[in-house]
Design a protein that fits this description.
Blueprint lengths: L11 H12 L14 H8 L12 E5 L14 H5 L9 H8 L3 E6 L33 H8 L5 E6 L5 H7 L2 E4 L19 E6 L2 H11 L13 E4 L1 H5 L4 H14 L1 E4 L7 H4 L1 H24 L5 H12 L2 H24 L2 E5 L12 H21 L3 E9 L2 E8 L5 H12 L2
Parallel strand pairs: 1-2, 1-3, 6-7, 6-8
Antiparallel strand pairs: 3-5, 4-5, 4-9, 8-10, 9-10
Length: 421
């Protein structure tokens, strides 16, 4: 029986195009002139109008999103070799192009987007442009690097377990993880559909907001009170490496706003089991999505990711059901919390990015600490906006605003007020 994953024959120009596109943002300081396919150039040539909302802004697209006529590799050569060239373009990509964005290329992603560290063994190591001694963060790593290196203005990515929020924090970018389902995840490689969201990263809030206005349907949105009640998860900041920087900013916030310092019992991540619950549910869905392809193809995948994929295969049904029940507990808990507050403020990451020479144990511990934080919004499908406010030991870090479902645009407007006071 023939493989269901065999790549259909294609022109040599597309083979060359994907090769060039994948190294276009490997960051040697320049972009190759031939890094863009004829189809990408055609898309750009159609965007000559100067009054479109995204005119003059370069767009880097994570290599999970399908673009008609260009291959999608999902960070793995075996995926590229076993999947046909897309015939349709992802809706969010299409909206940006129609709004005048200039397509700059597709960017490296961690394999199948199943990592948070931005390291892919198949391609040249991505350098964090603003903190070269530190990892760039993944899995939207290439899109983030393209923006922080000024190779593009908009880095389009996905966020399942933190893949917009983490590289944004590690590279000093503004990053928005959208409410689950507000931006369609059509024509793209899924990871765990119940948690997959589309998001983007920029160097400034104004650009981030322009993209949001293009990609988010305003009818899906709700307002935040003109005098919002902020819930500050002080105990989580106490555990963050950049707690002193956060405390200073939060103290200034409290001077002019209604702020509630949350007790540990109001947001106890250990009791809520956010990391373990998310990990189990995500892992179960990942195997549903990719298990058949993995077992049939036996792809060459990095050791740490393959270990997690092998674990995904073994998750018992009973554990999945228990995790679903615990997810409901988390959602109900957050719903109750949001009756008392309008916006939750938490650390985006435990601190700055790990160093490039960090060992496997350090990276694994970092991933676990990250998931405990990122799973708050992930399990409940909430929007989260990273604010790149601080620098610690010459590396960027910040904090996040988490809103209710549909508060995406309102969070952006609120962030503008808070950062221009």
């Amino acid at each position: 029986m023939s493989s269901p994953f065999v790549l259909k024959p294609c022109d040599a120009k597309f083979t060359q195009a994907i090769k060039n596109l994948e190294i276009a943002f490997s960051l040697d300081g320049s972009v190759k002139d031939d890094a863009f396919s004829a189809s990408g150039k055609a898309l750009n040539q159609a965007k000559s109008q100067s009054k479109l909302p995204l005119s003059g802004l370069g767009l880097a697209v994570k290599d999970l999103f399908h673009i008609e006529g260009l291959p999608t590799a999902a960070g793995n050569p075996d995926w590229l070799a076993t999947h046909a060239i897309p015939k349709n373009t992802n809706r969010c990509v299409a909206k940006m192009l129609q709004a005048g964005a200039a397509f700059k290329g597709k960017t490296i992603t961690d394999e199948l987007a199943y990592s948070l560290h931005g390291q892919n063994k198949h391609y040249e190591t991505l350098v964090n442009p603003v903190a070269p001694a530190h990892i760039p963060g993944g899995s939207s790593s290439g899109s983030a690097v393209a923006v922080s290196a000024h190779l593009a203005d908009i880095g389009l990515g996905t966020d399942t377990g933190g893949s917009i929020r983490v590289p944004s924090s590690y590279q000093g970018l503004w990053g928005l993880r959208t409410t689950h389902g507000v931006v369609a995840c059509d024509n793209m490689v899924a990871l765990a559909p119940s948690f997959d969201t589309v998001g983007w990263m920029t160097r400034d809030l104004n650009t981030l907001t322009k993209v949001a206005n293009v990609c988010i349907d305003s009818t899906t949105q709700s307002e935040i009170s003109g005098s919002p009640r902020f819930g500050i998860a002080a105990h989580l900041f106490e555990q963050a490496a950049h707690k002193s920087l956060c405390k200073t900013w939060l103290a200034a916030l409290a001077d002019n706003n209604d702020c509630i310092v949350l007790s540990e019992t109001q947001l106890d991540l250990k009791t809520l089991q956010t990391a373990a619950t998310f990990r189990t549910l995500q892992g179960n869905e990942i195997w549903q999505q990719h298990g058949e392809w993995i077992e049939y193809t036996q792809p060459d995948i990095a050791k740490d990711i393959m270990l997690r994929l092998n674990w995904c295969k073994t998750i018992p049904t009973q554990e999945v059901e228990q995790a679903k029940a615990q997810q409901s507990v988390v959602i109900n808990h957050l719903n109750t919390l949001f009756e008392e507050i309008d916006v939750l403020i938490i650390p985006t990451t435990p601190g700055v990015a790990p160093r490039c020479d960090a060992d496997e144990t350090t990276l694994a511990n970092d991933r676990n600490a990250l998931l405990a934080l990122t799973a708050i919004a992930g399990l409940a499908g909430l929007p989260q906006l990273h604010l790149p406010l601080f620098t610690l030991h010459n590396a960027p870090c910040g904090l996040s605003l988490v809103g209710k479902k549909g508060n995406d645009l309102a969070l952006l407007a609120l962030a503008k007020k808070l950062t221009t006071r």
